[in-house]
Design brief:
The complex is a heterodimer of chains A (332) and B (549). Chain A has helices at residues 2-29, 36-39, 47-56, 63-75, 90-94, 105-133, 138-152, 155-169, 188-226, 229-236, 241-253, 255-270, 273-278, 284-293, 297-325, 327-330. Chain A is mostly helical and 332 residues long. The termini of chain A are close together. Chain B is an alpha+beta fold and 549 residues long. Chain B folds into 3 domains: 16-75 and 204-282 and 518-547, D-Maltodextrin-Binding Protein, domain 2 (3-Layer(aba) Sandwich); 80-186, Dipeptide-binding Protein, Domain 1 (Dipeptide-binding Protein, domain 1); 287-510, Dipeptide-binding Protein, domain 3 (Roll). Chain B has helices at residues 4-9, 11-19, 66-75, 123-134, 144-147, 183-186, 243-251, 262-268, 272-277, 303-312, 315-322, 352-361, 391-406, 418-426, 447-450, 468-479, 483-500, and strands spanning 46-51, 80-82, 88-90, 93-98, 104-109, 149-156, 159-164, 206-212, 216-221, 234-239, 257-259, 278-280, 283-284, 287-293, 327-329, 374-375, 378-379, 381-387, 410-416, 433-439, 503-511, 513-516. In chain B, the strands form 6 sheets. In chain B, strands 13, 14, 15, 18, 19, 20 and 21 form a 7-stranded mixed beta sheet that branches. The chains are: A mainly alpha (332), B alpha+beta (549).
Chain lengths: 332, 549
């Protein structure tokens, strides 16, 4: 087991290197530069001024040199300064230690995604199991249709409809962002209530549209287990169907879900560009989108690298979890 | 229901708007919701403005985006500013003198103006700002105008003098808020680092209190503002990246001010709810959209062909369909009803018959009967390029495509991602025709766009226009401070441009702001509505937000 783990650990380093290398070059392949916001079709700009700006951002050097400089900095865990004119350190944009937790982008995105993941699992597992045990029944068909409708619904469209209904017509929920104007003057309970009201729609939208994958996964995993010999044996022993399903089959069917959770760790910080923009939520997705549009290379690279590290760690954790749960892997 | 008071208040405004209403039936009326409430100015309340983009940095000389300039404009002042009639008036400068030869400008500054930290504003601050903007190490896009200055001096605390090598007419207007920075806070520091850009100290009507990234900027009024304490206590700039969400926020009271799209202006806000609770405004933006020809391309070298195309396009139709009538057909590179605008230039009415005749004169005939004209066996077929994501431009292109097909010209449309479009096609001159727009400054100098020498890669005369008389007029226009002389030069230039048609000037779009009805004191002008924001107020009974402790 230690050798297996070591192997996985060692693999992470070149994988990460490869990811950053490819990302860096692809970003620089895209036409446009961070200085475009000043220089594109701006009659006030002279060629000298353009060169000066490009030199200022280090863009006059060849891309491999720029990559090498970036790599040297990242090795010291320094993502550098953003190319946007505020020139703040990238890490401060992602996680500003001086601000309250709720104003840090990484935390906001992480919180929303964890909550939505919990809700997805809370619904997907029961739906998956009940669909599997009632395979091809009317219930199964209705559930399948429902989760696929959710899967197929464009999230921006659903979000807007819900905003119009709950925000503009019923006035039950706020339309966008995370906090009301008077947030700072509220008590702690008031703050939590205010925040919850703002989070209902984003989390519902992200959970509803993400439900399909996990519930189908659970269903097929359950179906596979139910077909196994030991389940037949359990039934033959005369155990009640309840016991067969929940004691014997369920635990085994949960195994693949470990992988699923591990894989979603990377997604927890990526954020969703679409719903963060629609709901005006200051999270990672919004930052990433803005950085890509302004070709803010250091910020884009910073977010990609953090995302890559977490995805790789998630994979590793999934492997470990799997190993702990499944003795067959442990012996390898 | 309009109260008599409200009606009276807004009559001048209605007249002003009616002037720009043109063929549109809806005169862009302004409504007041209040009924019999005394509309007395009062301090208090908050104004919530919505924006798609977030400011990046609140130091005007470093910022490239409009959101940053918008907010920084409330925090900083310049020596001069534009008045509503586009003339230049003093801001921090009490007065100024321009020497007879136009080379020396001497500003006399207002006395007793204080930065919000209590330190007095002096000519040292202007000097510091000027030195910063011309400093090699400052990453600014605006240095060019200041590099024309040969010598800058601050002979005493309240005098600032600049000497130019050549008379430079736009010079005066450049002494706006780009170059005034608090020396006592920034001297010896790198302005790109440190906290100043995210927590600036200015002397303008508002003070930045809190900036929550990705969410909002909260500004409080500056009670010591040298033009008087602004009535509205708080200005909150909310960042809502999605336009549809922003519109919903407006409806539910989460926003007081935003810019509308033509569709929202003409349809979605034409309900009783909006009429009662909001006031809408419209005024031409300082921008125009055009179709530019590659004048090196054999099709477009002949001016008769360009004129034929102009006759084949119905500009008013484009305005009516694409902009829902909220714009004006353009006849030249200036905004109608501003001083450099010449209304009496050659106009090309929609006349497909004339277009066909002109094309025939130029040698284009449909010889093989396929509906497309040919000359020397080559069909008249070209591509219009435009950038992706601007539906106004793609719709315009589609209408032009349809109209030109009627006179026998086949047009293809290609949309490209912005950077690719500029770097690979405009800069490399790989285009036949483009649909693009220019945002124009308030100063009429357009040397960089029309001067025949400005045709190198990355320069802006990318259509390769060349006319010695225009070159001379451009020179003249920027070398004299005499407004009448400048006007004469630019009037003549517009006549020539209308004859030569390097572009077909299509339309001037309108800005369509909507403001919650409780805000009073808004006086629309050619430069918009927000120029007198400190004078806006909400009468006490209508105030909605209390100032937080």
């Amino acid at each position: 087991m230690p050798t297996y783990l070591m192997k996985r650990l060692v693999e992470i380093v070149p994988t990460l290197f490869g990811i950053t290398l490819i990302s860096f070059f692809i970003i620089h392949l895209a036409p446009g530069k961070p200085t475009d916001i000043f220089t594109e079709l701006n009659p006030k700009i002279t060629p000298e001024a353009r060169e000066r700006l490009e030199k200022y951002y280090g863009l006059d050097k060849p891309v491999p040199v720029q990559y090498w400089m970036w790599l040297k900095r990242v090795a010291k865990l320094d993502f550098g300064e953003s190319f946007s004119p505020d020139r703040r350190p990238v890490i401060q944009k992602i996680w500003d230690g001086k601000r309250p937790l709720i104003e840090r982008r990484l935390f906001v995105t992480f919180m929303i995604n964890v909550l939505s993941l919990i809700i997805i699992l809370a619904f997907a597992i029961p739906i998956g199991i009940s669909s599997a045990t009632r395979r091809n029944s009317l219930y199964d068909k209705v559930m399948t249709t429902t989760v696929f409708v959710g899967f197929a619904t464009p999230s921006f469209w659903l979000a807007l409809l819900l905003m119009i209904l709950f925000g503009a017509h019923l006035h039950w929920l706020p339309i966008s962002q995370l906090k009301s104007m008077n947030f700072d003057s509220l008590s702690l309970a008031g703050k939590i209530w205010d925040l919850s009201k703002h989070l209902v729609l984003p989390i519902f939208v992200s959970a509803f549209t993400g439900l399909a994958g996990d519930s189908r996964f659970m269903r097929s995993s359950m179906l596979e287990v139910i077909g196994q010999d030991y389940v037949t044996v359990a039934r033959a022993k005369g155990l009640s169907e309840r016991l067969v399903i929940y004691r014997h089959a369920f635990r085994n069917a949960l195994l693949p879900i470990i992988t699923l959770i591990g894989l979603s760790i990377g997604g927890l910080v990526g954020g969703s560009v679409i719903f963060e923009n629609i709901f005006g939520i200051p999270g990672m997705g919004q930052l990433f989108y803005m950085s890509v549009m302004t070709r803010d290379y250091p910020t884009v690279m910073g977010i990609l690298t953090i995302g890559a590290v977490l995805t790789l760690l998630g994979n590793l954790l999934a492997d470990i979890g799997y190993m702990l749960a499944d003795p067959r892997i442990r012996t390898r | 229901m309009f109260s008599a008071v409200a009606k009276k208040l807004f009559i001048p405004l209605l007249v002003l708007l009616a002037l720009s209403a043109c063929r549109n039936k809806e005169p862009g009326a302004v409504r007041a919701a209040s009924e019999n409430i005394p509309l007395l100015p009062a301090y208090g309340d908050a104004l919530l403005e919505g924006s798609i983009g977030e400011p990046t940095v609140l130091i005007p000389m470093l910022a490239g985006d409009s959101a940053s300039h918008q907010v920084a404009g409330l925090i900083f002042n310049g020596l001069v500013k534009y008045d509503t009639d586009l003339s230049i008036i003093g801001d921090l400068a009490e007065s100024w003198k321009i020497s007879k030869d136009g080379l020396v400008i001497t500003f006399h500054l207002k006395k007793g103006v204080k930065w919000t930290d209590g330190v007095e504003f002096t000519s040292d601050d202007v000097m510091f700002g000027y030195k910063t903007i011309i400093n090699e190490k400052t990453p600014t896009a605006y240095a060019e105008d200041y590099l024309q200055v040969k010598k800058a001096e601050a002979p005493d605390k309240y005098t600032f003098r600049v000497t130019y090598g050549k008379p430079f007419a736009p010079a005066l207007s450049t002494w706006g808020d780009l170059v005034v920075l608090p020396k006592h806070l920034l001297e010896g520091k790198d302005i790109t680092k440190g906290s100043f850009g995210r927590g600036p100290v200015g002397m303008g009507p508002y003070i930045l209190k809190n900036w929550i990234p990705g969410q909002e900027l909260k500004l409080a009024s500056n009670h010591e503002y040298f033009e008087g304490r602004p009535y509205i206590d708080q200005y909150i700039y909310r960042i809502i990246p999605d336009p549809a969400t922003m519109f919903l926020e407006l409806q539910t009271g989460g926003l007081d001010l935003m810019g509308l799209t033509p569709l929202q202006y003409t349809k979605q806000t034409e309900t009783d709810y909006f009429r009662k609770n909001f006031q809408k405004f419209r005024y031409p933006t300082f921008a125009y959209t055009y179709m530019g020809f590659n004048l090196k391309h054999p099709f477009f070298q002949d001016v008769r062909v360009r004129r034929a195309i102009a006759h084949a396009i119905d500009k008013q139709e484009i305005v009516d369909v694409v902009l829902f009538g909220l714009g004006k057909p353009a006849t030249g590179p200036y905004v109608p009803n501003t001083w450099p605008y010449n209304p009496n230039v050659k106009k090309y009415e929609y006349n497909p018959g004339k277009a066909k005749r002109l094309l025939e004169e130029a040698g284009w005939k449909d010889t093989n009967g396929d509906g497309v004209l040919e000359k020397n066996g080559r069909p008249f077929r070209f591509t219009i390029l435009t950038n992706m994501g601007n539906s106004l431009r793609t719709n315009t292109a589609t209408i032009i495509q349809w109209r030109l097909a009627k006179v026998g010209i086949k047009v293809d449309i290609r949309t490209l991602e912005w950077s690719t479009f500029v770097n690979q096609f405009i800069d490399k001159r790989r285009f036949e025709a483009v649909i693009l727009g220019w945002g124009i400054g308030l100063d009429p100098d357009q040397y960089d766009i029309w001067y025949s020498g400005k045709t190198k890669e990355k320069e802006f005369n990318f259509v390769s226009y060349s006319n010695p008389e225009v070159d001379a007029l451009l020179e003249k226009g920027r070398r004299t401070f005499d407004l009448e002389e400048r006007k004469k030069a630019y009037f003549r230039m517009q006549e020539i441009l209308a004859e030569d048609l390097p572009y077909i000037f299509l339309y001037v779009p309108e800005a369509l702001p909507i403001v919650q009805a409780r805000f009073k004191g808004i006086k629309p002008s050619p430069i918009g509505i927000e120029y007198n924001l400190p004078k806006w107020y909400v009468p006490e009974p209508l105030q909605r937000h209390a100032m937080e402790p």
